[in-house]
Structure formats: C-alpha cells, structure tokens
Amino acid sequence: MIAKSPNTLLPALAFTLLAFTLASPRQATAQIIDKVNKNLYSETANPTADIAAALAQARREHKRVLLDFGGNWCGDCQLLDIYYHQSPNAGILAKNFIVVHVNIGHMDRNVDVAKKYHVPIAKGVPALAVIDANGNLLYSEREKEFEHTSPEAITAFLNRWKPVKNTAPLKKS
Fold this sequence. Notes:
The chain is of the alpha+beta class. The protein has a domain at about 65-160: Glutaredoxin, CATH 3.40.30. About 45% of the residues lie in helices and about 15% in strands. It is built from 6 helices and 4 strands. It has helices at about 5-35, 45-60, 75-85, 90-95, 110-115, 150-160; strands at about 65-70, 95-105, 125-130, 135-140. Strands 2-1-3-4 form a 4-stranded mixed sheet. The radius of gyration is 22 Å and the shape is globular. The model is unreliable at about 1-30 (pLDDT under 50).
C-alpha cells in the first residue's frame, strides 16, 4: 500500500471544499433569479386608481394597505418581494394587507404619490408606507430601512403594522 503524503492530500481536499463552497451560492442565486418578477412595478399602472381599489378592498376585508415604492431595475426591491413570498411573511401579508406596487421609474415617476405619503424616494428604494382602510397614513419609511433587509426584519415590520383584530368574545345581553 502506498501512503500519500499530507502535502498531496491537502491541496486536493482544499480544491474539493472550494468546489462545494462555490456551487452553493450559484445554486442559491439561480433559485433567486427564478423567483424574480421582472415586471413587479408596472409601467402602465395608475397608482392613484390602484390605491383607491386597494382601500375599498381593505375596508371590505378589514386589512391595511402596504404601499411598496420601487423599480424593476432595483435588486433590493426584487429581494423584498421574494421575502414577501416566504413563510411566515406570505401568510401575514395575505391575512392583513393589500399590497400596491408603485413604480418610481428612475426616481422620476409617481413622485407625487410618494410625496403624498411622505415617502422620500430620493433616499432610495425599496420604500414602504402603510395606510389604514380609510387612507390614513400609519407609517412611512424615512431612512432606507428596507434597502438591505432580511426576511426576519420584514416579519417584524408586518407584525408591527398589521391591523389589530378584535378577538374578545361578544357579550350576550
């Protein structure tokens, strides 16, 4: 039996570990790319009409409206949308919010809508605002809070701003 010296095994082991390490990010990146919605922020949508429709639906369903300002070119906006679709965020969103994506172009479209809801898109996107079913502003982003976010931060945000449901039992008279 021929014994291999550690000097020949170490480079082979290092090469093998490097190959596995490099494969994982590629696979993860491929999975993320498959989930990207390249038309997340519609070029032809009318955000004023979309918000009005969302408010009507929110009143019927006792939900809030989440305004998501961004652009299709924005990687962090795309990542935020992926986080929206992950558990538990997808369930929290479906149960508590109507999401309206507002296309800001290259910081030159629907600026009036962002201004109305006090969202400083000039500081960057994605930028979020939450309004209640009556159109009252409850939250608007100030300092690029969602530019480099995590699924857990989105969960905390959604839980913080979801409507409070009345769970007390009805009293019988």
